[in-house]
Design goal:
333 residues, alpha/beta, Alpha-Beta Plaits, 2 domains, six-stranded mixed sheet, 11 helices, 23% strand, ABC transporter-related protein, ATP-binding, ABC_transporter-like_CS, ATP hydrolysis activity, P-loop_NTPase
């Protein structure tokens, strides 16, 4: 039996002038589920979150949260962290959380919330004197003072250092374990892979793929790969009975892509066979690294495909029409 949806969007459409922000976006999130929205800048993630939280009215389609329209929901049951959130600088972290707690009938203790976000020792520090990552954690805390049933987090860990990020991750995991439904947007594929029960990839205003991280990797992530750091030409691998190519430019991270080859569809137990192949043919190499596909591979495959399709469409437009809308990408997230 399918779990009852707590967050629903059906065929949401939203345009800003000639810019299409949402184009038939639909999703369904069950109670206690963590759903991560990923996608390129301008894909529509922030507009979708705004439509689901009642801060943007869609042009068409419908949205429901906890069975009600977003504008009708009891705000005590909802927590929302916008991507851009700037509370008053001249209040301490504790004073900020106390202020937001005062907006609700039965709030949590601000000191308990500070402890949850790993800031128990900085409660008396003015917001403006906190680091950027600490400020973001205070912002996360502000969404928790009402102990919400549904939590929307737009890029929650932006600017947070690795240790602080893991604190927020554990907090989100604990909230979901206690039954809180979480919808978050992120550009961090490790964050989505760790936290999300399901992931939806948004491109050009609609969800082009959704599923568990494992299912998306199986369907779109490609094969395992063995990267060999070598100056040898691809011709040296002509008689190897598995696919061999240069690494994707997105993965070479500043080094010359001609200094490595990637052997695909290789299981760990077969790496020794490749080593024997290299040695038998006198192919010099400096290192080997094996990796399974992950959510980043899924993102790159689907985002690249969408970008290519978008580029092809733009190439078919008259030059003056394409130039007439320099903000075609729409929003920043």
């Amino acid at each position: 039996m399918e779990a009852e949806a707590v967050v629903e969007a059906t065929d949401l459409e939203k345009t800003y002038g000639e810019t299409v922000a949402l184009s038939g976006a639909s999703l369904s999130v069950a109670g206690g589920e963590v759903f991560a929205l990923i996608g390129p800048n301008g894909a529509g993630k922030t507009t979708l979150v705004r439509a689901l939280t009642g801060t943007t009215d869609p042009d068409s389609g419908s949205a429901r949260v906890l069975g009600d329209a977003p504008t009708a929901i009891d705000r005590d049951r909802l927590g929302v962290l916008p991507q851009d959130f700037s509370p008053p600088d001249r209040l301490s972290a504790r004073e900020l959380l106390s202020y937001y707690a005062g907006l609700y009938d039965d709030p949590r203790d601000p000191d308990a919330v500070l402890a949850d976000v790993g800031l128990a020792d900085t409660g008396d520090t003015w917001y403006e004197n906190l680091s950027g990552g600490q400020q973001r954690r205070v912002c996360v805390g502000s969404t928790l003072v009402n102990d919400p049933d549904v939590l929307f987090l737009d890029e929650p860990t932006t600017g947070i250092d690795p240790a602080g990020r893991r604190t927020v991750w554990r907090l989100i995991e604990d909230l979901a374990a206690d039954g809180t439904t979480v919808v978050l947007t992120t550009h961090d594929m490790a964050e989505a892979e760790r936290l999300a029960d399901r992931v939806g990839l948004l491109a050009d205003g609609s969800l082009v793929a959704r599923g568990t991280p494992d299912a998306l990797v199986r369907e779109h992530g490609g094969s395992s790969r063995l990267t060999i750091e070598t100056a040898a030409d691809l011709d040296a691998f002509d008689d190897l009975e598995v696919p061999v190519s240069r690494p994707e430019r997105s993965r070479v991270r500043g080094r010359n892509s001609e200094s490595a080859v990637v052997v695909r569809e290789i299981a760990p137990a077969e790496i020794g066979t490749i080593v024997d192949y290299l040695e038998d043919r006198g192919i010099e190499y400096t290192s080997l690294s094996w990796a399974e596909p992950d959510l980043e591979n899924v993102y790159l495959a689907l985002a690249d495909r969408t970008e290519l399709e978008h580029t092809d469409r733009a190439g078919d437009e008259p030059a003056d029409e394409a130039a007439a809308d320099p903000t075609r990408a729409g929003e920043t997230a």
